[in-house]
From TrEMBL:
Alphabetic keyword roster: Cell membrane, Membrane, Transmembrane, Transmembrane helix, Transport
Entry protein name: Guanidinium exporter
Signal peptide region: none
One MF term in the entry's GO annotations: transmembrane transporter activity
GO CC, alphabetical: plasma membrane
Membrane topology: Multi-pass membrane protein
Family statement: Belongs to the drug/metabolite transporter (DMT) superfamily. Small multidrug resistance (SMR) (TC 2.A.7.1) family. Gdx/SugE subfamily.
Pfam families, sorted: Multi_Drug_Res
The organism of origin for this protein: Bosea vaviloviae
């Protein structure tokens, strides 16, 4: 169950990272409230996952899922560049996450 908590926490990290873009410096109410709620849920689920997972592994995977999701949504939603080198680097993060899961 801890791995599920961790993965969902990473998805909520994506939500608040993308949400930050839409808050316009926390000047827009609805995006700000949703972003703050995503932060709380993300950290809460990370805390639950840490009850049984090693800190270093859990934190690396949480940030990795957040990084990958945010980078992909930046490309899809915000028109950020999707060059081969950038995609290869995202692939390296995926490889690292899979590796950490396999050795934990």
């Amino acid at each position: 169950m801890a791995w599920l908590y961790l993965f969902v926490a990473g998805l909520f990290e994506v939500g608040w990272a993308i949400g930050l873009k839409y808050t316009q410096g926390f000047t827009r109410l609805v995006p700000s409230v949703l972003t703050l709620a995503s932060m709380v849920v993300s950290l809460g689920l990370l805390g639950l996952a840490l009850k049984s997972l090693p800190l270093g592994t859990a934190y690396a995977i949480w940030t990795g899922v957040g990084t990958i999701g945010t980078a992909v949504l930046g490309i899809v939603l915000l028109g950020e560049p999707a060059g081969a080198l950038r995609l290869a680097c995202i692939g390296l993060i995926v490889t690292g996450i899979v590796g950490l899961k396999l050795v934990s």
